[in-house]
Amino acid sequence: MLDCAIIGGGPAGLTAGLYTTRGGLKNVTLFETGMPGGQITQSSEIENYPGFFEHDKTGMDFMDTWQKQCFHFGLRHEMKKVERVAKTGEHFTVTLEGGESVEALTVIVCTGSTPKRAGIKGEDEYFGKGVSTCATCDGFFYKDKPVTVLGGGDTALEEAFYLSNICSDVYVVHRRDTFRAAPATIDRAMRKENIHFVTNAVIDEIVGDAMGVTGVNIKHNDGTMTHMDNTGLFVFVGHNVNNEVLKDQNGDFICEMNQRGQVIVDLCMRTSVEGLYAAGDIRIEAPKQVVSAAGDGSVAALQVISYIQEQQ
């Protein structure tokens, strides 16, 4: 019987593992099919994590020290895919790929979310080299330079506004002439002088060279094409929440979720199921930042320790 099963090996999961094991729990396993680290390992540079300001270090370098620290205190890592989690009596059954299962007193789900790709030609080639899905993470790299934002929802316009305070000009490309964002968000973006809207259009291709993105080709609804020189493209077309492990065999969620498929938690990362916690990008209102995910993981871990002590 595990004291705690942690599902997902990004910043939230690793921090949860660190705090649970250093806090005295002896039997904690982190389930992650690959090497832990999460999406941040794909970043070529880290500038906005407090205390880490080494420009020659990549996201992989950044997370490498996290792994060493967490495993030092006794966290075990199982490279096995978790199929689902179920509450069985006073504990949980964690079913793994192939039918194997383990029992756990508590579970912390940290499987995160994955930004949707737009499927544009050149998107994969230049991802991390001018194509980004996080303005907070990468906006500063384009200080006083023009950038393009793709999308028409709340996130796209909020991130465009954020970028407008850093970049010289922000061009928002949207396939329609109306936006899905909240009226207040639209109004705020419309009033910003350096935010420009390119509506009834899509990005047909991302172009660049060995140094990265140099511009985008835009296809308008009337069939005409235009080229826009740019050094950065921010894609905001939604996220896929990685919540499959929280579905039962009938496809129903075992805890309360919102309409976007995000886990509803309180400030202690507690779900509607006693002993089940969610941390990081899978939860509601997640800022999608490493520092925030790490904070979530520590909060969930401390709650797990208290919960187990109360049960005993």
UniProtKB/TrEMBL annotation:
Residues 3-297 form the FAD/NAD(P)-binding domain. PROSITE patterns: PYRIDINE_REDOX_2. It comes from the Bacteria. It catalyses: [thioredoxin]-dithiol + NADP(+) = [thioredoxin]-disulfide + NADPH + H(+). SUPFAM superfamilies: FAD/NAD(P)-binding domain (SSF51905). It is an enzyme of class 1 (oxidoreductase). Coiled coil: none annotated. Pfam families: Pyr_redox_2. Transmembrane segments: none annotated. GO terms for molecular function: thioredoxin-disulfide reductase (NADPH) activity. Its cofactor is FAD. The keyword Flavoprotein applies. Keywords: Disulfide bond, FAD, Flavoprotein, NADP, Oxidoreductase, Redox-active center. Gene3D superfamilies: FAD/NAD(P)-binding domain. Its EC number is 1.8.1.9. Binds 1 FAD per subunit. Homodimer. Belongs to the class-II pyridine nucleotide-disulfide oxidoreductase family. This is Thioredoxin reductase. It comes from Sulfurovum xiamenensis. The gene is trxB.
